[in-house]
Amino acid sequence: MASTVGQTITCKAAIAWEAGAPLSIEDIEVAPPKAGEVRIKIHHTGVCHTDAYTLSGKDPEGAFPVVLGHEGAGIVESIGEGVTSVKVGDYVVALYTPECRECKFCKSGKTNLCGKIRATQGKGVMPDGTSRFKARGKDLLHFMGTSTFSQYTVVADISVVAVTPKIPTDRSCLLGCGITTGYGAAVVTAKVEEGSNVAVFGVGCVGLSVVQGAVKNKAGMIIAVDVNDGKEAWARKFGATHFVNPTKLSGKTIQEHLIEMTDGGCDYTFDCTGNVGVMRAALEACHKGWGESIVIGVAAAGQEIATRPFQLVTGRVWKGCAFGGIKGRTQLPGLVDDYLNGELKVDEFITHRQSLDGINTAFDQMKEGDCVRCVVDMQ
Ligand SMILES: NC(=O)C1=CN([C@@H]2O[C@H](COP(=O)(O)OP(=O)(O)OC[C@H]3O[C@@H](n4cnc5c(N)ncnc54)[C@H](OP(=O)(O)O)[C@@H]3O)[C@@H](O)[C@H]2O)C=CC1
Ligand SMILES: N[C@@H](CCC(=O)N[C@@H](CSC=O)C(=O)NCC(=O)O)C(=O)O
Ligand SMILES: [Zn+2]
Ligand SMILES: [Zn+2]
């Protein structure tokens, strides 16, 4: 086959032309990578609620037309000038939380957020301010620095990590967001201690991954909270010790119930729903003096969180994290090793599969209660 290096590639992508409309599968032109950039042949991508959230028009940063997708894995097709961190043929996972190792954030040792390209990433363009995508003669925007709903994508070299080809791309793609986010929130951000009591609100891909992290750190009670009774079996399969459906409590709130169950409140709670009312309940279910509540869910534009300041005065801590607090280039290969050693569940999250042509069905399935993750075969 003729080399594509340095050439514009025409391939298929799922394009979001406008908010609220189905994605359109059509030809897209993908320009070669410029200096410091990497072009990836995407093999598989997961579909995350954040893709649906931006497509819905509720994301204050959402702009159209755009190529969505941020949970993707594939092979490096070509690299731009000066790229040394990956090479052609490497198996890679795209990173919506980049890691430059040079900026104030990366050097702080306090966060996994990286400031180097955040401004251009939020505007939907590459670090030089331009797009590598064109369709119907128009430039398309990039999304979260990754745009994995295209058969080929271009990312900054700090937005990609090479992983061993021993992990199939239909599994490694899920480490690009959902699994890493929940697992990292428990293990890296909260640093759940042995014997501590944990409540996880929302038992989707992210919540199940929090449960998995809490099990890894030998938590005591791991209480899964979900409005969907069908999630109890899932939660227990991943190691939850208790399940509560808050809609079935009579005469008391979920926070009161959890405080009773844990003799004073949870050591750690996690919001994995994106519902600001749930975030409040999660904070107020924490133990006085030290309980920490981690916000993971993404809430719609205009939504705000509230509680009595007294809840914080009396020692409860409210914090949040993106990508679980995991530094992708440094820590993702270790998660891959954990998977290969049988210490990290990944296969178990895949409940649905689609081809690129079926990606709109993947969005529909994601909103049904029995879908944990749908993996899309991009080729
Ligand atoms: N901070 C970050 O870096 C990231 C954040 N996210 C965000 O995390 C959130 C979770 O993602 P994901 O796991 O994929 O989502 P899912 O929709 O799969 O899981 C959410 C679960 O919460 C349940 N739920 C809804 N309302 C309530 C409620 N009031 N109380 C308890 N449970 C409730 C849902 O039930 P039902 O089945 O009935 O809908 C569902 O089971 C999303 O907001 C997503 O955007 C995702 C990845 C990264
Ligand atoms: N753009 C939105 C916020 C969306 C958001 O919070 N994204 C998370 C990842 S969610 C993944 O599925 C994130 O990484 N946030 C940190 C960041 O720097 O974007 C808005 O403007 O509200
Ligand atoms: Zn995501
Ligand atoms: Zn950085």
TrEMBL record:
GO terms for biological process: formaldehyde catabolic process. It is an enzyme of class 1 (oxidoreductase). InterPro entries: ADH-like_C, ADH-like_N, ADH_3, ADH_Zn_CS, GroES-like_sf, NAD(P)-bd_dom_sf. Keywords: Metal-binding, NAD, Oxidoreductase, Zinc. Pfam families: ADH_N (PF08240), ADH_zinc_N (PF00107). Its EC number is 1.1.1.284. Its cofactor is Zn(2+). Residues 206-333 form the Alcohol dehydrogenase-like C-terminal domain. Gene3D superfamilies: Medium-chain alcohol dehydrogenases, catalytic domain, NAD(P)-binding Rossmann-like Domain. It catalyses: a secondary alcohol + NAD(+) = a ketone + NADH + H(+); S-(hydroxymethyl)glutathione + NADP(+) = S-formylglutathione + NADPH + H(+); S-nitrosoglutathione + NADH + H(+) = S-(hydroxysulfenamide)glutathione + NAD(+); S-(hydroxymethyl)glutathione + NAD(+) = S-formylglutathione + NADH + H(+). It comes from the Eukaryota. Residues 35-160 form the Alcohol dehydrogenase-like N-terminal domain. One of its GO terms (molecular function) is S-(hydroxymethyl)glutathione dehydrogenase (NAD+) activity. GO terms for cellular component: cytosol. Belongs to the zinc-containing alcohol dehydrogenase family. Class-III subfamily. This is S-(hydroxymethyl)glutathione dehydrogenase. It comes from Penicillium solitum. The lineage of its organism: Eukaryota, Fungi, Dikarya, Ascomycota, Pezizomycotina.
